[in-house]
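PROTEIN DESIGN WORKSHEET
SECTION A - STRUCTURE
LENGTH: 94
TOKENS:
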């Protein structure tokens, strides 16, 4: 048995560095959106309207169901939540 170490759980769960990068970006966005929506302290129906989502879709978001959201969808939802998105790109360690 070999013990591998990873920089993040996403690296461990992904088959490729590209997939890990996508998961990292999506999870960071979902986390920040969820945090913002919970601060609104609104009923889920109202939060869904504010985000331009159906209530079931907002429920998926608030329950952290990452697999149900593409990076593009999360960017749009973040904009609807009036969140500024800043992308930082740097060389990855080899």
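SECTION B - SEQUENCE
RESIDUE ASSIGNMENT:
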């Amino acid at each position: 048995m070999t013990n591998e170490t990873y920089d993040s759980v996403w690296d461990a769960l992904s088959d490729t560095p590209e997939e890990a990068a996508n998961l990292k970006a999506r999870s960071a966005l979902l986390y920040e959106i969820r945090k913002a929506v919970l601060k609104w302290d609104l009923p889920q129906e109202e939060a869904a309207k504010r985000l331009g989502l159906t209530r079931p879709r907002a429920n998926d978001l608030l329950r952290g169901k990452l697999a149900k959201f593409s990076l593009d969808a999360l960017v749009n939802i973040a904009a609807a939540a009036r969140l500024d998105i800043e992308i930082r790109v740097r060389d990855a360690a080899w």
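SECTION C - NOTES
The radius of gyration is 15 Å.
The chain has a mean pLDDT of 89.
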